[in-house]
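Q: what does this look like with adenosine-5'-diphosphate bound?
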Amino acid sequence: MGIETQTGGFDGTWVARLRALRNVPPVLRIVWESGPGVVVWGCGLRVVAAFVPLAMLAVTKWIIDAIVAHVSHQQPLPHTFWWYVALEFALAGAGTIFGRAIAYCDTLLADKFIRRISVRVMEHASRLDLACYEDPSFYDKLERARVQATDRLVMIQAIGNILQQALTTAALAASILFFSPWLLLLLVLFVVPAFLGESHFAFLGYALNFRQTPTRRQLDYLRVLGASKESAKELKLFGLSPFLTGRFSKLSDEIYSQNVALARRRLLIGSLLSLLSTVGYYSAYALVIYRTITGEISVGTLTFLAGAIAGASANIQLVFSTLSGIADQALFLTDLLAFFAVRPKVQSRPDAIPAPRPIREGFEFQNVSFAYPGTSRLVLKDLNIRFEPGEKIALIGENGQGKTTLVKLLTRLYDPTAGRILLDGVDLGDYDLEDLCGQIAVIFQDFMRYEMTAAENIALGQIKDLENPQKIAAAARKSRADSVIRSLPRGYEQMLGRRFDGGVDLSGGEWQKIALARAYLRDAQLLILDEPTASLDARSEHEVFQRFAELTAGKMALLISHRFSTVRMADRILVLEDGKIAEQGSHYELMACGGRYSEMFELQAANYR
Ligand SMILES: Nc1ncnc2c1ncn2[C@@H]1O[C@H](COP(=O)(O)OP(=O)(O)O)[C@@H](O)[C@H]1O
Ligand SMILES: [Mg+2]
């Protein structure tokens, strides 16, 4: 998927760090897209503000020279003198106001940027293959990308700041150069080591952070586990809290001690290097004082140069440390950009055709084999199935035989490893993905319980009907969710789940009815129920499927269930075993032939006797 190779492979050299700066332009593009107006204002203000320090120093020099001439040589003050004082005052005021205005623009831009990038991360994540989500290392990437999306704000401000700092430095440096090139050289020589040191540690910090991601993910999991609705029951009864807390502390201690070790080295070496740059500054300063004493330069120039040297050395340091900050931050962006670069494998082709309406010939699996990405075991082996319009098929088989996998292939959550799946004689891959999905309604075993209102929970099945209470209510009636909803204090507007204030939790069976309503809301040609009724008792499940059969009369339906009372309603029953169709036929045919089906049937019937 590219991400691991890109960041996992960084070798810790300066080259790698400089290479990371390549990440800056694409992010700047996102910054620009999130608010061009604000960006222009922020840059414009910074350019103007960058020259304020130099202008102030120049005015100060003029004022001091005028005062010295007046006091020591009894010359009259120039008639513009007080205007210059006023100008100095105005410049100081402008400097403050510019600073405020820049901060204001940054705040606006920060909000716009966070929104823009969060939306982009969400949009992109939604386009990725299901396979990504079933890959734990993908979660590390997604996690880093998420954090990066919001944490990289510092970098954006840094880029704005570096513009300002570089301009200020250039202006001050030019003025120092005008008086003495040696001064400038002295400054630069002493500041550079501090910069190299700073950025080296920033880099080590990133590398450390990268290595800590798996541990941090564990910490997050433990923290959630330690205080969540789902786990509370077991944690209390099994007395697991000390165990979890202990494990959490141990892991966080690990991270802490690694961080401290790095921070110590940074403290020691960083202090030495910044001492060096202080030496540079004061040597330059001493040189200027000496020249003033020998009368080479005026007192005004002394003030000017002292200010310019202080300003330039501070700004050079700032430029370097900001730059190393940007390089450091840019490294973090590697993950974000790599995340954006992950392309889904399952997607519509440019020349995709719309799904057939109505379906005329049905689905056909031709020698379909499938292994999950990254594994070699074939879950489905050389499967051949036909599935005709109007037909109701039941798929049975023990756990782990590949029933859900078959549904995932049918709905193109995955593409087959070998073989083809045809719909009306055309490969599924030739259809527009979104349009194809629109023709299929699926409720999975692990269906979602959305922490939203009852009406929204149903409407998510076909989001365009969100504002259509009649259709929502009709779907609820079909799935028998209406009686559940009627008993809720706020009816269809009732918030479900415990996450939000005033939410009401439902039982497993009640949630299933809501989920089923979601499927009924969809104008789909194929309905698939993948054991969503597992937590209903046998009689309710029977009732649900009976209704399902009536309601889907004339449509294609695929039922997956463990209960034979349900399964026997189907037109045709497929017994999936070891990735292959072991038997197929109607209930009576399969009973008569006395194979796997009748064996399983007898086993279940025996339990009820
Ligand atoms: N995302 C996955 N990655 C790897 N293997 C998987 C994944 N999902 C399911 N499997 C494996 O595929 C096999 C079939 O799973 P599944 O289709 O869920 O079975 P069923 O629905 O019949 O119980 C199982 O052995 C399971 O371990
Ligand atoms: Mg399953």
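Residues 128 and 343 are 7 Å apart (CA to CA). Residues 1-11 have pLDDT under 50 and may be disordered.
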